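Example 9 (inverse folding). The structure is encoded as follows.
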C-alpha cells in the first residue's frame, strides 16, 4: 500500500483517479497468469491511524496479470477522492500457494514521498505496516497514481488584501438576530482593462462549520470589470426646449452680449423702415 495526502501533493481540492501504475519484481504462476486487485480508499478520519477500519472504499479494479519480471504495470481504475482527503492505494493478490502463484511487488532503495506498507493476514500482518518496521527499510514500493484534479486554490486558503476593494467596517459584533451593514467600495484607478476577481472571507465565532451562509466562514465572490475609456466629441449644442419668441422680449432679460447684438439689429431695422 501507499498513502497520498493530497493537500501535501498540491491537490487541496481532491482528485479523480483514472489509473494506477506499479512495479512488478516477479509475477510467476502455475497457469501463466494470476488475479490481482487494485483498491482505492480514502482515510475515513484523515488524521486517524492507517487501519482497514479507518478506510473507505472509493474504487476497485480486477485484472489477470501474466507472468513477468522487472516491469511496470498499469491498471485502469476509477475513484474520486474528495477535497482534503488522504488517498490510500492497495495492490492486492490473494493467497496463490495452491495454484503455484507467486507475486513480488516492485520496489527499490531510492527515496520515496512517504512510507510503503505491507499487509498479509496469512503471514501474521493483518493491518498495513511500514516495510521498515517489518525489517525491510530499503523496500520502497514503486507506484504512480494518475488522475484529474482541480488545482485552483480553495477559497480563503491564501488570504491577502484586494488592492481595488475596501470595506467599512472591517470587523464588529452582532447580537443574536441582528445584522450590520458593510459598505464595499471598488476603485479602478490605475487598473488596466480586464476582469478582476476575488473572495471576501468573513470569519466569525459561529459554532456551525463553514464555508456557507450563517456559518463560521462566509465566502462572498466579488468581480470588478474595467473597460477601455470611451472618447466623447461634442459637435454642437442644442436647446432642450423650443426657443422663446424674440418679439416683445425685454432686452434686459437676455445676457449682455446677446442684448447688445439684438439691440443693434433692432435699431438697424428701424432705420431701414
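The amino acid assigned to each position is listed next.
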Amino acid at each position: 500500500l501507499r498513502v497520498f495526502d493530497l493537500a501535501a501533493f498540491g491537490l487541496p481540492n481532491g482528485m479523480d483517479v483514472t489509473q494506477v501504475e506499479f512495479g512488478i519484481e516477479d509475477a510467476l504462476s502455475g497457469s501463466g497468469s494470476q488475479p490481482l486487485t487494485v483498491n482505492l480508499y480514502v482515510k475515513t478520519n484523515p488524521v486517524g491511524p492507517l487501519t482497514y477500519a479507518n478506510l473507505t472504499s472509493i474504487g476497485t479494479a480486477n485484472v489477470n496479470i501474466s507472468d513477468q519480471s522487472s516491469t511496470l504495470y498499469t491498471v485502469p481504475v476509477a475513484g474520486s477522492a474528495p477535497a482534503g482527503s488522504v488517498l490510500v492505494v492497495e495492490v492486492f493478490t490473494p493467497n496463490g500457494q495452491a495454484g503455484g502463484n507467486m507475486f513480488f511487488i516492485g520496489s527499490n532503495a531510492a527515496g520515496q514521498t512517504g512510507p510503503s506498507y505491507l499487509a498479509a493476514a496469512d503471514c501474521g500482518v493483518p493491518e498495513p505496516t511500514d516495510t521498515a518496521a517489518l525489517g525491510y527499510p530499503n523496500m520502497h514500493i514503486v507506484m504512480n497514481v494518475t488522475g484529474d484534479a482541480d488545482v485552483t486554490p480553495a477559497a480563503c486558503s491564501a488570504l491577502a488584501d484586494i488592492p481595488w476593494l475596501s470595506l467599512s467596517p472591517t470587523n464588529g459584533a452582532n447580537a443574536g438576530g441582528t445584522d450590520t451593514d458593510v459598505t464595499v467600495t471598488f476603485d479602478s484607478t490605475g487598473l488596466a482593462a480586464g476582469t478582476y476577481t476575488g473572495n471576501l472571507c468573513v470569519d466569525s465565532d459561529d459554532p456551525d462549520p463553514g464555508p456557507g451562509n450563517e456559518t463560521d466562514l462566509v465566502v462572498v465572490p466579488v468581480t470588478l470589470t474595467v473597460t477601455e475609456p470611451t472618447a466623447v466629441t461634442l459637435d454642437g449644442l442644442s436647446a432642450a426646449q423650443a426657443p422663446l419668441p424674440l418679439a416683445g422680449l425685454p432686452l434686459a432679460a437676455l445676457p449682455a452680449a446677446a442684448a447688445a447684438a439684438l439691440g443693434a439689429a433692432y435699431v438697424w431695422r428701424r432705420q431701414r423702415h
